[in-house]
Structures are given as C-alpha cells and as structure tokens.
Design brief:
ten-stranded antiparallel β-sheet; alpha+beta; 352 residues; globular; four-stranded mixed β-sheet; binds zinc ion
C-alpha cells in the first residue's frame, strides 16, 4: 500500500516588497513513497525564480550561431569528426537508424557510453522534438544494447539520458541523447531496486503496479500512451516541472518493444511541447532500467524529466546547494498544480 505523507509548516515575516505587511510562506515536506527522501514544496517559489527560467532569445540565437561553426554533429562534419566503433563491434563503424546516427562517446560517463545524434538540424526548439526524432534515437540505442549483450554480457546496467543545452549540462548544442552502460547500477537505480524489493517483500505486490493503480485516480495522473503511463510525482526529485513515466511490467530496457518505446517518445514530445509553451528551452531526461540479464517482477522501467533554466547572461542555475549537495528534493510549485496546467495544455491539442 502506497502512503503519501506530507506535513505543512509556515514562516511569518514582514515583507519589504509589500510595505512590511506580515506575510506567511508555506513549506510542505513530502516524503517520497518509495525512497523516503524528503522533497519540500515551496509555495510562491515558481513566481520568484520564473524570470530566470526563460531564455534571452538574442543570447540563445548567438549561442546557436556560434556553435554551428565546426559543430561535430552537423551533417557536413559528422563523418569526419565523430568517433567510430571498433570494426569488430560494428562493421560499418557507426549505426544509422532513420535520422539518428549512433557513435561512441569520446569522453562518456560510463565505461560503455554512446551518443545518438538525433537530427540533422543544429538546434531544435522544444516543440520541434517530434516523436519520430526521439524514437529513432531509442531504436539506435536498442541496436547498440543488443550488440553489447552479445559481446560483453556483464555490462548489464543501461540508462538513457538527455542533457539539452548548456543549462542542462550539455557541452554540445546539437540535439543528442546518451546511452550509458556499466557493470554496476547508477546510485538512484540501486536505491530504487533495493526499496522496490523491500516493498514487494512487505506488501506482496509491486510498488510500481500499486503506484499506478493509486495515481490513475489522482490529480497527478496525466495520460497513458501504449503501455507507458505519465504522471507528476508526489515528491519530485528536483521539482522544476518534473514529470515521471512508468512502463508497466517491463523491468529492463531490452524488454521494451517498439510499442513501448513509441509510448515513451510520444509522451516526451508532448511534455516538451508543454515546456516550450511555458517558454523553456532546456531539459534533462533519465530512463532507468533494472539489470538486463533477468526480469524482476518488483521493478518497472521508469523515466523522469525536468525543465532547466534559460540561456541568460545571469548564468542562473537551479543546481543550488540543497538538492546538489544536501540531496534533498525541492519543488517550486505543487505537483497537483503542475499536473493541472499540463492537462489543460494537452486538452487543447487535437493529438492528445
Ligand atoms: Zn550541429
């Protein structure tokens, strides 16, 4: 049984912006129902930081123009300036699926890291990430995982990752996705696997199945596409427009069929259109997987995505000390409010 725990605290002060009138700020401490990590929901924070979240269009255009020169991922350079796989791994040196071009990562975050270059265009606005662009990247990642499974089966913990634009940690502007694979789980995956096992032993059911059953009836539920269900998490990890997706009944990435990948690609594209509508231009996504050599009944493949600050002269970042070093979660508005805004946006679109 899923327990959604929250406690409300308030702080009173005399506000200089309102002629020193007494004002109350509300802090909602929410416990993640799986990991028990705290996330603080701070009412009014979105309004306070919103001026940093949209991009300065002139500065963004300048960044795009400057980085287009000699961009290794643009079509005129991609054959000569990106690494190749060893011939024994991929005979042709690289993998091509639709518009996606898969190459090894020159300096990746894990011992087996690749990049899926997603488009021939150097820059895409968030509303231009069509499902097909994302799906081609996923399909390329799957081909790579299958090849890796044949040649190096001990490397069994993959994660798909997007960092888009410098505010999201990307050194290259050109749209791309990373597949990181290593012999040990990433920390959050390890924690989720351990906690999911514990939950299943205690409750004799899967946390992920229980979560979906409960959340389908809640304000936080967004939509279902194929076997993928989309929601706003009760206690966000980072909380900047954070959205979660769960692929029900699939515990690792090679278990996903094209229908499930398509559900993920379509959902990402919808949420990115919402981010675009809100004025954002940068984002991160992670897709977490259990070990690829066994099916786990107690764990489901799941995704988190967040928007990041805009490209601005102030170089504002939302990686401040509390989430980055103290490991606490923080959200700038109530998850239920965010879900309401996303659903309102999607309702007005004919394909949703
Ligand atoms: Zn480029």
């Amino acid at each position: 049984m899923i327990i959604f725990q929250k406690t409300e605290k308030t702080s009173k002060m005399l506000n200089p912006l309102k002629n020193f009138m007494e004002e109350t700020v509300t802090f909602e401490y929410r416990t993640d129902p799986l990991t028990e990590r705290n996330s603080t929901i701070i009412g009014g924070m979105l309004g306070y930081v919103s001026k940093f979240l949209t991009s300065d269009q002139d500065l963004l255009n300048l960044l795009v123009e400057k980085t287009r020169i000699n961009c290794p991922f643009c079509p005129e350079n991609v054959q000569t300036k990106t690494p190749m796989f060893q011939r024994s791994f991929v005979k042709e040196g690289r993998i091509t699926i639709g518009d996606a071009f898969i190459v090894p990562n020159l300096l990746g975050h894990a011992e087996r890291s690749i990049l899926a270059i997603l488009s021939k265009q150097h820059h895409l606005q968030l509303k231009e990430f069509a499902p097909k662009i994302i799906l081609d990247g996923f399909r390329g990642g799957v081909v790579y995982l299958k090849r890796l499974e044949e040649l190096d089966p001990v490397i069994r913990f993959p994660a798909f990752v997007f960092n888009y634009l410098p505010p999201a940690g990307s050194s290259i502007v050109h749209p791309h996705m990373q597949v990181l694979v290593r012999d040990r789980p990433f920390y959050l995956v390890k924690l989720m696997l351990e906690k999911s096992l514990k939950y299943s032993e205690k409750n004799d059911s899967s946390y992920w199945a229980d979560l979906l059953m409960t959340e389908r009836k809640s304000q936080r539920f967004l939509f279902r596409k194929n076997r993928v269900e989309w929601l706003v998490p009760f206690a966000p990890l980072r909380g900047m427009n954070e959205v979660q997706a769960v692929v029900q009944g699939r515990s690792h990435l090679p278990e996903l069929d094209d229908d499930a990948w398509s559900g993920l690609a379509e959902g990402i594209s919808r949420i990115l259109r919402f981010y675009d509508e809100e004025g954002y231009s940068s984002f991160n996504i992670i897709i977490m997987s259990g070990p690829t050599d066994e099916h786990l009944d107690y764990f489901d493949v799941n995704l988190r995505m967040i928007s990041r600050p805009g490209v601005r002269a102030e170089c504002f970042t939302d990686s401040w000390a509390l989430p980055y070093l103290l490991w606490d979660g923080e959200a700038v508005e109530q998850p239920e409010k965010l879900a309401g805004r996303i659903k309102k946006f999607l309702l007005n679109r004919e394909d949703s």
